[in-house]
Write a structure and sequence with these properties.
By secondary structure, this protein is mostly helical. The chain contains 26 helices and 4 strands. The protein has helices at residues 2-5, 86-89, 104-122, 125-140, 144-156, 164-176, 180-192, 196-213, 236-240, 248-258, 262-274, 283-295, 300-311, 319-331, 336-347, 356-368, 372-384, 392-404, 408-420, 428-439, 447-456, 460-472, 476-488, 504-520, 524-535, 543-550; strands spanning 9-14, 32-37, 229-230, 233-234. A two-stranded antiparallel ribbon has the order 1-2. Strands 3-4 form a two-stranded antiparallel ribbon. Strand 3 (229-230) and strand 4 form a beta hairpin. It is globular, with a radius of gyration of 24 Å.
Length: 556
């Protein structure tokens, strides 16, 4: 405990990380640095109403809020909710079907959203207006997805006067009905206005949904936020590496794997398992290539096979097989496999019985070898007192080291510590920032893949629409990508304004607003452009227009 308190400074850099352990969810986020001093730690963290009593330490309290080892898979994939655009973008997806037929509002929303995407692709302003009217009719009938989409159109000023206050109200209606994308938009609105009491609650809910949904979603837990531009120029190298199976590097790797190269087999397994570099996530192909790699003697794939069997990802769940492969990987000194073994002993899966002592030993072996999952799970044990004496500062020490490696669940837990003031002094701004970084891994982030895919196919209109939609949810990369498209392709008919295609003024205002939002989130290129615009007098707007640019919502 003293080891943490006496450190004059603790740096936790949240960076891009690809995870391969059983309870570590891979994710890619924009890097930032969390700097903590001794003043951020509480001197007395022995008791807090959110923690279980000391008498219950080590007891079987899976229902407790702080038990991270619960079976918390969501019952349904949020990607396939009635409000999702994914079934409209992915021909292999279909909305969830129930016993009751779709309502008229459902049909209007689906038809309108599909027509808007088509109109954006074809640059058809008349069709765009007609589609917007369908969405507005569905919204009037109370459809939350339509209300969310109409809020986006209203905020951007597409086919109607721009009104952030109306957009906020529509998002509020949709969010109250359970629409997660509108909850993201409202949380971002509160965040921009420094209303952290409100923002933190929404982002906490969304962060939890993001973590649990990744357990069953067919979308990858790694949504790579590809920036279309490097400065003012197109980011050709990043785009080249995002073409999936059409990428030359992928084709070379696939050829080598087919020729028996075990390293290439393992790499292909990773690409398919996590859905990297523009590939669709495919558990069956991942399992195939990992199995081939193991047959060729590549021991790294053993751990992934263990994880696949434990999760039932593309195969029938089998904890005995999971234990076998994780144990084999551990014998080869793949220390993240120790973390997986610890998890099995905590749950009593694939082993004779639960054994918290063994679980802690395995987690410690993983942590001692700089495995983020081991630090995270040790942090949870010490935080709750599972099989050990509760030690909040020791928990903070381990959780912060896991945060340093970009472990999403650790980021979520540290956010909760800041929110509730457990071990760390209550700091809602910090909690909001951390929750936001996890929430942005949610299934709604899959729109970025479709936006990128559209751009790579030359469908700039659809790419702009999808990036603009994500910008409304607070994604900095989407904000800068949409702004760059508006600047780069300003001569093309892709920007929808209040009445028909954007005027030059509408396009400049929208681009300026997007760059401004990106600059607020640390985009240095955006900040430079905003500064240049004011310095050289390229911005000529009214006070009301300035208010619209710099605010996302109002206190209603």
């Amino acid at each position: 405990m003293a080891r943490v308190i006496r450190r004059p400074l603790l740096l936790a850099a949240v960076s891009v990380a690809v995870a391969v352990s059983l309870v570590r969810l891979a994710a890619a986020v924009r890097p930032f640095v969390l700097v903590l001093s001794v003043d951020d730690f509480l001197k007395d963290s022995s008791a807090h109403p959110s923690l279980p009593s000391a008498d219950s330490a080590g007891a079987d309290t899976d229902a407790d809020e702080w038990d991270d080892f619960a079976d918390d898979s969501p019952a349904a994939d949020p990607l396939l909710s009635p409000s999702s655009w994914v079934p409209l973008l992915d021909p292999t997806s279909s909305p969830p079907s129930g016993d009751e037929p779709d309502s008229p509002a459902d049909s209007l929303f689906v038809a309108g959203a599909r027509a808007i995407l088509s109109a954006a692709s074809e640059g058809d302003d008349v069709a765009f207006v007609t589609a917007s009217a369908q969405i507005e009719a569905a919204a009037a009938a109370g459809h939350p997805g339509a209300q969310s989409a109409l809020a986006f159109l209203s905020g951007a000023g597409m086919t109607r006067p721009a009104s952030r206050s109306r957009a906020f109200l529509l998002h509020k209606f949709a969010a109250d009905a359970g629409d997660l994308q509108s909850k993201m938009a409202i949380a971002y609105s509160y965040f921009r206005q420094e209303m952290y009491e409100e923002a933190v609650k929404l982002y906490a809910e969304l962060a939890e949904a993001a973590l649990t949904s990744s357990l069953i979603s067919k979308e990858p837990p790694v949504i790579e936020p590809i920036r279309l531009h490097s400065g003012t120029e197109e980011n050709k190298e990043a785009l080249r590496k995002s073409r999936g199976e059409d990428d030359e590097d992928f084709q070379i790797t696939e050829y080598q794997a087919q020729r028996g190269n075990s390293a290439a087999m393992y790499k292909l397994g990773l690409l398919y398992y996590y859905g990297l570099r523009g590939l669709r996530r495919d558990y069956v192909k991942a399992f195939h290539w990992f199995s081939k790699a193991v047959e060729k003697g590549d021991t790294r794939a053993m751990e992934l096979l263990g994880e696949i069997y434990a999760r039932g990802a593309g195969v029938e769940r089998n904890y005995s097989e999971a234990y076998k492969w994780l144990a084999l990987a551990a014998k080869q000194q793949h220390y993240s496999a120790y973390n997986g073994l610890g998890y099995l002993y905590v749950k009593g899966y694939g082993v004779e019985k639960k054994n918290l002592t063994k679980a802690r030993e395995y987690f410690k072996l993983a942590a001692d070898n700089k495995e983020a999952g081991g630090h995270y799970n040790l942090g949870v044990l010490y935080l709750k007192g599972i099989g050990v004496k509760r030690d909040i500062m020791e928990a903070c020490n381990h959780l912060l080291q896991a945060v340093n490696a970009g472990q999403p669940k650790a980021i979520y837990q540290v956010a909760k510590l800041f929110q509730k003031g457990i071990g760390l002094k209550k700091n809602l701004h910090m909690a909001t920032m951390l929750y936001k970084s996890v929430a942005e891994r949610g299934p709604w982030s899959s729109l970025s893949r479709w936006a990128l895919e559209s751009y790579l196919k030359g469908d700039v209109g659809k790419a702009l629409l999808l990036y603009s939609r994500m910008a409304d949810l607070g994604y900095e990369v989407a904000q800068s990508n949409a702004a760059w498209i508006l600047d780069r392709y300003g001569d093309q008919s892709i920007c929808m304004g209040e009445s028909g295609f954007c005027t030059d003024m509408e396009r400049h205002l929208r681009s300026h607003a997007l760059w401004w939002q990106a600059s607020e989130q640390g985009n240095e290129h955006a900040a430079l452009l905003i500064g240049d615009a004011y310095y050289y007098g390229r911005v000529c707007i009214t006070i009301l227009q300035l208010a619209e640019i710099h605010k996302v919502g109002y206190n209603l």
